[in-house]
Amino acid sequence: MRQKGLLIVISGPSGCGKGTICKELRARHPEIKVSVSTTTREIRAGEVEGRDYRYISKEEFERQVQEGEFLEYARIYSGNYYGTPKKYVKETLMAGDDLILEIDIQGALQVKEKFEEGVFIFLVPPSMEELHRRLVQRGRETPELIMERFKSAYEEMNFINRYNYVVTNDKVDEAIKKIEAIIAAEKCRVVRNEALLHEILDGGI
Fold first, then answer.
1. Which of 91, 98, 104 is nearest to 37 (CA)?
2. Is 60 part of a structural domain of the chain?
3. Deepest of 11, 54, 92, 203, by most Cβ within 10 A of its Cβ?
4. What does each C-alpha distance from 171 to 22, 128, 177, 183 come to in angstroms?
5. What is the pTM of this model?
6. 10 Å Cβ neighbour count for 55?
7. Which one is predicted more confidently, 197 or 44?
8. Strand pairing class (54-55; 70-75)
């Protein structure tokens, strides 16, 4: 009997490398699905509708919130909404496929309230100095917004104890190996294999 898919939630402060880690994890494990988030922000150069995000208006997003179409959603300091479509997540897991959610901390905590059996991984930078360097190096935000993100990172670190695992993203390859080990261990948990155990025992001699 095929196991239900594993919901792998990866989050952490802005600049910790969530996008890089998830992209590399998918490159090494194409069988793992990725949930494409919905957002109200403008599409950026190089992004593709349906691959990076689903881009909709604020009014449409709020309508979908009212109709309960999101597993989680949040409005961040930029004023834009981000959310995870509930239907795709449920269908993917029931089909037995593993699924990665790359979401912010607000969203991850919402998911945990509804889906405790998920695997929640908090990604951290090797130091706050390195986090600040990465935010500046991206070159996407104004100095004011960089400082806003940096201050938020300090606050977000307080939520580490709400997660199952913490992984330091110093070297991408090492961080990926740790996440692979977490996934392998989670798949061997007894609670995830009860149907298999019953099947073995019912088979008799």
1. 104
2. yes
3. 11
4. 14, 15, 10, 19
5. 0.83
6. 15
7. 44
8. unpaired
